[in-house]
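Q: I'm writing up a methods section and want to include an example of the input and output format. Could you take the sequence below and give the corresponding predicted structure tokens, formatted cleanly so I can copy it straight into the document?
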Amino acid sequence: MNSEISTERPRFKTRSNDAGFDLTIALPGLAKDDVQIKLENRILTIGGERKALEGEFENKDHEACRFELKVELHEDLDVNNIKATHQDGILTLSLQKRKELAPRKIDILAN
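A: Here is the clean output for your methods example:
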């Protein structure tokens, strides 16, 4: 068994919307507790470690691996309102624009 731990950058995608954007990261084989998310000086860091599964596997998703992804957040985003969900090896972070910058409807008043 190979005892080395590789370091890799996880696959991710972003999707923007009127309210902000979602960052989706593929983390096969990682449980929620294997992932850490930190925010410091508008730098969002997502990192973790996957332990190797016992046995011989051809798929590299079963090998031990460390990962880290750093994202610099734009000033327009509300860093106090980041939501993270983890399901079936997919981590999704929802980042919203600051409320005062979000699109809004302005009602027209009658005279």
